[in-house]
Fold this sequence. Notes:
The longest helix has 26 residues, at 17-42. The protein is built from 14 helices and 4 strands. Helix content is 64%, strand content 4%. The chain folds into 2 domains: 14-228, Rhomboid-like fold, CATH 1.20.1540.10; 238-286, no CATH class. The protein has helices at residues 3-13, 17-42, 47-56, 62-66, 71-74, 82-103, 108-129, 131-134, 148-161, 177-190, 197-218, 225-228, 254-267, 274-284; strands at 58-59, 143-144, 166-169, 173-176. It is mainly α.
Amino acid sequence: MTFWQNLYFKVFRSGSKLYLLIGINVIVFLTIGVLSIFEKLVFRTTIVDIYSQEYLTLPAYLPKLLIRFWTLLTYMFMHADIWHLLFNMLWLYWMGQIFEEFLGNKRILGLYLLGGLSGAVLFIASYNIFPAFTQSGSLAVVTIIGASASVMAVIAGAATIAPNYTIMLLGIIPIKLKWIAIFYVAMGFWGITGPNAGGEIAHIGGALFGFLYVRQLQKGRDMIGAIAGIFKSGSKLKVVSTNRDKPSSDTPRQEEVDCILDKISTTGYDNLSKQEKETLFRASKK
Length: 286
């Protein structure tokens, strides 16, 4: 299988919504970028840049938002430059894999979309409520773009379900997920009066949704149930085999999965044995 065939399979055929999200972000960025460069080289105009800024970024000004309502979705797939895209996609890939490891690959799409929407709502509300923004003169023109709010929802969600999960930062520094999430939320709060106030507010909104989603899921309420369509109302945080009458030898018993999830909530994912991790992984595939 060639590189491009393998890439196509991972994005469109693997069933992983994580790869699909990354693929959409990259395709959108490359499409707009290539068209913009071509236009500037050949026609010496900037129509692509102007129209993408006008019709795809999220405005805080309510009258404009009413006639650009689709920007609540499009903004979370737009990026300002290659470094903005790279940073977001790397964190989405790292944290998304951890999130999928615990909860399967059917929820991350809903978390990404609703996390981005939560960030958008908090951004719009803040700019229309707080005098620091309403009286600054920037309300009518300020916009935000980027997957950062959605990525923060994934980071916060992963950190909530497995706070003591340790990764090697830069390959050499061990750090727990909870400290990564706390650091980025703190940095976002610190920057809400700075030059990227709108973006930082959106980050906090996304992180807040990721945290609340997992906490509610642990209590048996799945806010992404309508998107995921795989959990019954009022169920616990667990993966349930729908074929109870014909259990497979590859399907972990529900009692076994519940015990592992209880252990995670009290001692963290790192304290699971290799066998327990494999059991949880197999359960997440059902």
